[in-house]
Design brief:
Phosphorylase Kinase, domain 1; Aminoglycoside 3'-phosphotransferase, Chain: A, domain 2; 2 domains; 3-stranded antiparallel sheet; 14 helices; about 50% helix
Length: about 400
């Protein structure tokens, strides 16, 4: 039984309830109606487009499509309150779907956005798309209270003390406490039984390559705090970020004008380095998640050197300039702001953002390790995916950080 079949009864029941509520109708005594369910793309969640076909109620039914999202195993990682706040704000300005219902724990029912589709991968470098992405990233970077991060810069504290604040004292969720204290701790719980089963299995106990990969994952996870510390820059601006920008999380109108443009999936938003979203978008351009066969994804370019090409690096620099032009007045009281912004346009800072992005998805993927799924090759290969992210961190680090540091 696949995941959709397992939850079909709930999806049908919940969708009928929602359709009745938002349309002020009753389907109880209607014989001729059907609920059509179509699974949409999604790695960690089950996402479905649900359509109500009720001919006798056509004139009374103004909304006959919704999206139902069933949260996956990593749902404990998500700050649902922050996610809902952002989604509600975006909906109010017509930049995102309405939320019809959620329990914040297992599911959410959203508006189905008509006449849009996920961004065609052939358009991922389109200048219009990049400009719209910049606007979306700037919107994120403009939200939330970032005064404490400005205060940190003005105190001119050593990097060690800034990192300590981000890890243990910051009341807000930021990329340091999120990945180290939240993601890594949950990953350890998942990795331990997976590792034990892998080493004891007849299938893998003599598989040297797989066992070496496992050792690398264990080593990096054990030393994850130190790795993040060395990746993190001495000084940079911190603001709210989306953290998961890639073509599958972009919905556009069914034309090349892109007059409708939505960045969706706000599960991993938290405070992070300014520029991280463009760095993440660059990295994600190397991955394709529509592979119908195991491992169910493809890396377009195994050589990460492509990320240093002008196409990628220049649009990262352009975003920092775009941010500075719009937001610099908000940081006018930050000491050495011009020097900080100039550093943020450097390749050193760019590489650090790339490595931090890969670190997030390395530790995230471990949360989905399942030995039975891995051994049977019937689902997404999170094990190899974590290794691919890990190798990216290593390659990027060699470009930026002293080799003995990571």
């Amino acid at each position: 039984m696949d995941a959709l079949q397992k939850h079909r009864t709930f999806i049908e029941t919940k969708s009928i309830e929602i359709f009745e509520k938002i349309n002020s109708i009753s389907l109880t005594n209607i014989e001729e109606f059907t609920i059509e369910i179509k699974k949409l793309s999604g790695l960690s969640n089950i996402i479905c487009h649900v359509h109500l076909d009720a001919p006798k109620l056509k004139t009374l039914t103004t909304i006959d499509n919704v999206v139902i999202k069933l949260f996956g195993a990593g749902g404990d990682l998500v700050d649902r309150d922050t996610e809902l706040t952002i989604m509600s704000f975006l909906s109010d300005i017509d930049k995102g779907p309405k939320i019809y219902e959620t329990d914040k724990k297992s599911y959410r029912v959203e508006e189905f956005l008509n006449n849009v589709t996920t961004l065609d991968l052939k358009e991922k470098h389109n200048p219009i798309v990049i400009d719209e992405m910049k606007k979306a990233f700037l919107f994120y970077n403009s939200l939330g209270d970032f005064q404490s991060y400005k205060d940190l810069l003005n105190l001119n504290l050593p990097k060690k003390e800034v990192f300590e604040y981000l890890l243990n004292k910051d009341p807000k969720q930021n990329i340091v406490n999120f990945t180290i204290k939240k993601m890594r701790e949950l990953s350890k719980v998942t990795l331990e039984p997976f590792s034990k089963k892998l080493r004891e299995s007849e299938q893998f106990k003599n598989d040297k390559e797989t066992l070496e990969k496992l050792e690398k994952i264990e080593c990096y996870l054990e030393n994850f705090e130190e790795i993040i510390y060395h990746i993190f820059p001495e000084k940079a601006l911190i603001a709210l970020a989306h953290n998961d920008a890639h073509p599958l999380n972009v919905l556009v109108s069914n034309s090349h004008r892109f007059d409708k443009f939505y960045v969706i999936d706000h599960e991993f938003c938290c405070f992070n380095l300014v520029g991280i979203d463009m760095a993440n978008y660059n990295v994600e351009n190397l991955f394709f998640y529509g592979n119908p066969e195991w491992p169910y994804y493809t890396i377009y370019e195994s050589d990460m050197n492509i990320l240093s090409e002008d196409l990628y690096y220049n649009r990262f620099k352009d975003y920092i300039d775009f941010f500075a032009e719009d937001r610099k007045k908000e940081y006018s009281d930050v000491k050495d702001i011009d020097e900080i912004l100039e550093f943020m346009k450097s390749k050193n800072y760019y590489w650090r953002c790339l490595a931090l992005s890969c670190s997030l998805w390395f530790v995230w993927s471990i949360n989905y390790f399942n030995f039975e799924d891995f051994a049977s090759k019937k689902s997404f290969n999170y094990f190899n995916f974590s290794i691919d992210r890990l190798m990216q961190i290593y390659r990027i680090a060699k470009e930026t950080i002293e080799k003995d540091e990571i």
